[in-house]
Amino acid sequence: MNLEKSLAVDPELEYLETIDSTNLELARRLEGSLLPDGYAIAAAAQTAGRGRLDRSWVSEPGTSISLSMFLKPAAGMEQGLIPLFFGSRVAMAVASITGQTAAVKWPNDVLVDGRKISGVLAELGSQGVVVGVGINVERQLGAPETSCAVSEFVSSSFDETLSAVLGALRTGWKSWRELGNGFALSEIRASSLTVGKEVKAILPSGEVLEGKAHAIEDDGRLLIVGEQSHLLSAADVWHLRN
Ligand code: BTN
Question: Would the pTM count as exceeding 0.85?
Answer without folding.
Answer: yes
